[in-house]
Task: inverse folding
């Protein structure tokens, strides 16, 4: 693992060389395969040192981080062609990737907090520096204050655990359970609920997505939302007693919120806003399953986190491909794309069907496990889950039908062919999304 981190540190310097853009991208993919082969048989929390190590939960999310960061560079050809501070852009992505890998492999709670917060800085710079809307400053402030304010109680909670147990090592604390510590329970999970984001504290996400460049949207949807789920997976071994008592509040808010957000999706006219709100609905069901603290729920939430990272990132790429040609993200203008870009319509169909958890995508495995866990937790939840599943299909079909069918707006009648780079980019999202279900025991290995 140390070899992977060192290779990444040397790639920092490479990002400032001229004509190194595609070289760095290829090296990230090479690093992905090195990591995949080298750490494929891990079943314990170890491998580096006292402070850093990986187990099966970390393994999947680090692999996803590598993959999405490589695809981010592939999607950002415009930054390269316009020479829009491309070396700084490369540096920001490499720095973000390093922070994410260190977050997912931290064995100490404080180190986890440190890198968890540090991953916010390059994301903020990506939105402020390469976003293309005038409101990006406001979106950056939203992102910063929502996440920082919710994270302060987490730091206080970590210091309290240190004073009580004299250790912050996850593998040592796994055997500890805090009894009836209501304030500690709230302080340890609040930061992760905002990061997921849970309904009611989700307002920063659509804003950040709409203002971010395509690379910012991909990393936000692909990895940064998963930091919340990962944090909860780690923390709930300490909070089992309080969790049994209070988790129903968050599950109720998430399920009701998921249905409401799905209805909001049905009246969006901005492509990116629709995909961003659909992320909130998906994360609502992930959060609900995770908080049931059952085997089905935890493994299902992990599977859906990986699946959503690939599917949502692919949809943002598609929205960006349409935006680059049409100059707008409005569904009123992006009509009739079947006439305009017939080669891309298949990709819209495949990724929209993935978004509504159609077989054979990994989303299906995750959603079946989550439905199983939430219904076994309380049969009343079936009402909201039925609504959530139905409207999830409804807004995915709405997105596909409105963008692909209908008369072409504003007299655009010429035929546009996608580039090989764009098709490769979409294939690299779709292929793992459908192939991973063949290795579905991967999500069950670590428990």
Result:
């Amino acid at each position: 693992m140390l070899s992977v981190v060192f290779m990444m540190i040397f790639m920092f310097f490479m990002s400032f060389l001229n004509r190194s853009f595609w070289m760095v991208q290829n090296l990230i993919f090479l690093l992905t395969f090195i990591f995949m082969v080298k750490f494929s048989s891990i079943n314990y929390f170890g491998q580096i040192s006292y402070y850093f190590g990986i187990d099966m939960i970390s393994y999947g999310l680090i692999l996803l981080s590598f993959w999405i960061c490589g695809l981010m560079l592939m999607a950002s050809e415009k930054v390269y062609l316009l020479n829009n501070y491309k070396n700084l852009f490369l540096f920001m992505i490499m720095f973000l990737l390093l922070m994410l890998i260190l977050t997912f492999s931290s064995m100490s709670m404080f180190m986890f907090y440190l890198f968890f917060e540090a991953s916010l800085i390059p994301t903020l710079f990506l939105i402020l520096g390469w976003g293309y809307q005038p409101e990006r400053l406001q979106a950056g402030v939203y992102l910063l204050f929502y996440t920082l304010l919710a994270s302060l109680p987490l730091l206080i909670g970590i210091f309290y655990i240190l004073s009580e147990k004299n250790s912050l090592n996850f593998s040592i604390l796994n055997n500890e359970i805090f009894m009836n510590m209501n304030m500690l329970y709230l302080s340890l999970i609040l930061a992760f609920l905002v990061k997921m984001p849970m309904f009611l504290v989700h307002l920063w996400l659509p804003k950040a997505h709409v203002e971010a460049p395509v690379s910012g949207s991909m990393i936000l949807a692909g990895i940064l939302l998963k930091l919340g789920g990962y944090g909860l997976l780690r923390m709930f071994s300490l909070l089992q007693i309080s969790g049994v008592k209070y988790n129903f509040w968050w599950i109720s808010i998430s399920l009701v919120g998921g249905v409401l957000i799905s209805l909001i999706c049905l009246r969006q006219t901005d492509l990116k806003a629709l995909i961003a709100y659909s992320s909130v609905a998906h994360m609502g069901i992930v959060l609900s399953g995770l908080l049931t603290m059952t085997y089905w729920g935890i493994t299902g939430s992990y599977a859906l986190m990986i699946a959503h990272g690939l599917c949502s990132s692919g949809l943002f790429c598609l929205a960006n491909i349409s935006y680059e040609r049409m100059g707008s993200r409005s569904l009123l203008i992006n009509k009739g794309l079947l006439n305009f870009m017939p080669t891309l319509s298949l990709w819209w169909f495949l990724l929209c069907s993935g978004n509504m958890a159609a077989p054979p995508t990994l989303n299906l495995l995750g959603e079946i496990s989550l439905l199983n866990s939430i219904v076994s937790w309380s049969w009343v939840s079936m009402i909201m889950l039925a609504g959530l599943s139905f409207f999830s299909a409804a807004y995915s079909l709405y997105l596909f039908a409105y963008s692909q069918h209908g008369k072409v707006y504003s007299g655009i009648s010429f035929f546009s062919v996608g580039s090989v780079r764009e098709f490769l980019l979409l294939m690299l999202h779709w292929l793992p999304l459908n192939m991973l279900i063949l290795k579905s025991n991967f999500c069950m290995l670590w428990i």
Residues 360 and 434 are 6 Å apart (CA to CA). The first helix runs from residue 2 to 14. DSSP finds 20 helices and two strands in the chain.
